[in-house]
């Protein structure tokens, strides 16, 4: 007897080779097999009379083979099988290329169903290589909505489909419903068996929608339970106990007062660190909201308590900037601040590591180099990571492993809607800095098309003439991408600009450059040695160039709203009035309304809410910025309401049953998720 854990080899037709191919797709057991959801569907449910099909339509026709299929040799290596099929309304010529076996499968008088594109030429109708099966056959590749799976070498659609069919027949009835009955009913979700059946072989589109909704809910619910449990366990875990100290001592050293939001975030973190439990806190704040200052306050606090801190940045140049900022803030207060980056000489690194080990630094600022194996810390109390989305969760954990469970503060400048933050960062406590320092001016934003090019060039000249600098961002162009629209590649656009502005200093950075070269170009731009910097999104991460007052985004339709917002955050960081110009010739309703949102607001949280509303959470999950397990929901297209509901229900359930001891099947799934992602989750 087969059950959900049985190896896929058990399926008829799956031998060693095919099993290996399935393994490559992550399918090992029958449960994996029936959880291997289609990538999309093809609607083959419509039967049409031949005469009523118009040119180019994809349909099923039911027809009788009217003559003997014959083999035609066109030339060497090219053979055709040709025949005519008829129904009551008309006839169609059918051709198969290089599929001689068709001749043996089909004979005159057979009643068949063909699915494919019909070409109409005058009164003649024809189909090339249509899918076929005998009318009334049980194989089921026509006359229904057909699943389309992601494949790999060694597998075709038919094999996967037939295997899944067998898998469902063998153990579909054993599927435990991991959703507690009252939640399933309360949320009006279909049963597991129905969902698995209809996600693969939907009876109709309504059934597909019901199945999808249930499975999306299930996936998010399991994730929310997993994160909720981690958080619950963490709450009981001991951390370094730091003594109380009044942050006023730090705030008073500043030339300005902290915003209320900064104070609140810092106090929340302090409360964690004096609790005896280990802190895992995310600080979310828009670009320019002053997250670094909050980190500085907490580093100061940790130092007061007798411990050192590590501050990790995603790039060399950001590490340099943070080193300069933090030394400036904390050095005068008596902290010894060090630096450790990959760009330092071997000797400098060795000295820095020795100093670290001997406890001669109260703060070390650096890049990934901070958690190389040979780095040892003395009394590490706090780890801060900036721009968290650039680090995998596992990288962060390598650093955490350095001390005896130091407190962790994660700073993210990607505003994420609250609904989503709860799912994505469900294992962290979240503080939000929702207030900008006073006197910040809004970056004036305009969406224009190519017809503005002349005026735009004039504007560049004017800004540079006033001593300012300009960012020009071009979309990343993938090598193998089909280009339906003309995209500006950064390099080519830089050349064009050089012709337009021979008198200006223009540089270009793009993703294919070595990190070292990128950094040096960024650094000379930051030092004011370049007027215009043409770039792909490599500049997204927070390099500070206060003198830059104009950001131009080419092919703006290619960027997500949150990304545009991040980009825009690169200007308006100094005293100068700043502008962002979004250039796009795309006039689709959707693109226009997205760009309009950018022109209307500078509030990152509002923008990300809109992004979520317009495009669904797929982009947030798809970007894998969070280091969580890969979600199938991204493909299935979750909506915000399901997200919210899954989160609420998970929280309610964990309150009643924190260990999930009353929900064995669910607990099993949650634990499987932990095991699969042990590295990422720890
Ligand atoms: P973020 O990292 O959140 O994008 P930063 O911490 O780099 O922002 O701060 C942006 C700028 O605002 C810095 O130049 C910083 O000195 C300044 N700043 C931060 N907090 C305040 C404040 N409360 N009042 C005035 N200026 C501030
Ligand atoms: Mg920052």
Description:
The protein has 682 residues and is α/β, with parallel strands linked by helices. Helix content is 39%, strand content 18%. The chain is built from 25 helices and 22 strands. The strands form four sheets. The protein has a seven-stranded parallel sheet with strand order 12-13-11-14-15-10-16, sandwiched between helices. A six-stranded parallel sheet has the order 17-22-21-18-20-19, sandwiched between helices. Strands 2-4-5-7-6 form a five-stranded mixed barrel. A hairpin with a 4-residue loop joins strand 4 (78-86) and strand 5. The longest helix has 31 residues, at 205-235. The protein is globular. The two termini are 37 Å apart. 43% of the residues are buried. Magnesium ion (MG) binds next to helix 10.
């Amino acid at each position: 007897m087969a059950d959900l854990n049985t190896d896929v080899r058990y399926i008829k037709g799956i031998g060693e080779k095919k099993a290996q191919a399935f393994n490559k797709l992550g399918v090992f057991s029958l449960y994996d097999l029936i959880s291997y959801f289609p990538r999309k569907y093809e609607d083959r449910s419509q039967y049409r009379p031949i005469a009523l099909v118009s040119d180019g339509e994809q349909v099923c026709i039911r027809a009788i083979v009217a003559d003997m299929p014959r083999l035609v040799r066109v030339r060497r290596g090219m053979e055709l099988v040709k025949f005519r099929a008829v129904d009551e309304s008309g006839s169609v010529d059918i051709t198969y290329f290089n599929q001689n076996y068709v001749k043996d499968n089909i004979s005159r008088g057979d009643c068949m169903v063909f699915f494919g594109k019909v070409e109409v030429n005058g009164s003649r109708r024809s189909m090339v290589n249509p899918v076929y099966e005998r009318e009334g056959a049980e194989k089921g590749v026509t006359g229904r909505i057909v699943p389309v799976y992601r494949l790999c070498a060694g597998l075709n659609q038919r094999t996967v489909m037939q295997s899944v069919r067998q898998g469902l027949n063998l153990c579909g009835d054993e599927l435990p419903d991991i959703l507690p009955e009252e939640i399933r009913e309360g949320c009006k979700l279909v049963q597991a068996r129905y969902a698995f059946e209809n996600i693969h072989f939907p009876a109709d589109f309504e059934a597909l929608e019901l199945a999808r909704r249930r499975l999306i809910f299930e996936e998010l619910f399991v994730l929310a339970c997993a994160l909720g449990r981690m958080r619950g366990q963490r709450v009981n875990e001991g951390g370094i106990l730091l003594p109380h100290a009044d942050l006023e001592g730090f705030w008073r050293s500043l030339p300005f007062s902290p915003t209320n939001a900064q104070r609140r975030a810092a106090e929340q973190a302090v409360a964690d660190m004096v609790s005896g439990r280990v802190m895992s806190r995310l600080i979310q704040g828009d670009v320019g909201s002053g997250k670094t200052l909050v980190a500085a306050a907490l580093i100061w606090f940790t130092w007061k308590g007798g411990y050192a801190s590590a501050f990790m940045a995603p790039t060399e140049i950001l590490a340099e900037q943070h080193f300069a900022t933090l030394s400036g803030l904390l050095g005068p207060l008596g902290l010894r601040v060090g630096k450790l980056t990959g760009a330092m000489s071997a000797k400098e690194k060795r000295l820095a590591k020795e100093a670290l080990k001997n406890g001669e630094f109260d703060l070390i600022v650096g890049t990934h180099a901070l958690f190389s194996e040979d780095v040892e810390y003395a009394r590490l109390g706090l780890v801060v990571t900036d721009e968290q989305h650039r680090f995998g969760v596992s990288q962060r954990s390598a650093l955490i492993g350095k001390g005896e469970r130091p407190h962790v503060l994660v700073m993210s400048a990607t505003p994420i809607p609250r609904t989503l933050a709860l799912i994505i960062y469900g294992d962290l406590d979240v503080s939000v800095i929702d207030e900008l320092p006073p006197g910040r001016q809004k970056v004036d934003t305009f969406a224009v098309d190519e017809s503005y090019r002349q005026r735009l060039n004039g504007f560049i000249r004017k800004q540079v003439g006033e001593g300012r600098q300009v960012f020009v961002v071009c979309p990343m162009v993938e090598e193998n991408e089909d280009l339906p629209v003309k995209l500006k590649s950064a390099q080519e656009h830089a050349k064009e600009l050089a012709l337009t502005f021979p008198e200006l200093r223009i540089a270009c950075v793009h993703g294919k450059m070595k990190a070292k070269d990128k950094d040096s170009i960024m650094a000379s731009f930051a030092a004011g040695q370049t007027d215009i910097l043409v770039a792909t999104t490599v500049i997204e991460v927070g390099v500070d160039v206060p003198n830059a007052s104009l950001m131009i985004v080419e092919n703006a339709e290619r960027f997500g709203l949150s990304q545009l917002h991040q980009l825009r955050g690169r200007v308006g960081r100094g005293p100068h009035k700043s502008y962002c110009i979004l250039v796009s010739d795309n006039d689709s309703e959707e693109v226009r309304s997205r760009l309009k949102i950018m022109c209307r607001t500078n509030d990152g949280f509002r923008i990300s809410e809109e992004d979520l509303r317009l495009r669904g959470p797929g982009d947030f999950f798809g970007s894998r910025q969070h280091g969580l397990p890969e979600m199938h929901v991204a493909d299935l297209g979750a909506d915000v309401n399901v997200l919210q509901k899954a989160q609420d229900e998970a929280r309610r359930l964990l309150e009643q049953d924190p260990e999930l001891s009353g929900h064995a099947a669910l607990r099993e799934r949650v634990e499987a998720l932990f095991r699969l992602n042990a590295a990422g989750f720890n």
